[in-house]
Design goal:
mainly alpha
């Protein structure tokens, strides 16, 4: 136990140094999904559910002010 104590303390110090100092935002990690017109038409024809999910994603981001 006493031999592993310094190792445990060193690991605790290293892990605590990994904390972020930047304030979190609801927009972190979000990006508006854009498709060209031919791609959008093809998706609408072949996978309507995915097209609706993309629209929902974009609507959510706009409602949170992540993009216009």
């Amino acid at each position: 136990m006493t031999k592993s104590l310094p190792l445990m303390l060193a690991l605790c110090v290293l892990l605590s140094a990994c904390q972020t100092t930047k304030p979190q935002s609801v927009c972190d990690g979000w990006q508006k999904l854009r498709a060209s017109l031919p791609t959008a038409v093809a998706i609408l024809k072949t996978d309507r559910q995915f097209a609706e999910q993309v629209a929902s994603h974009n609507k959510f981001g706009a409602s949170k002010g992540c993009w216009k």
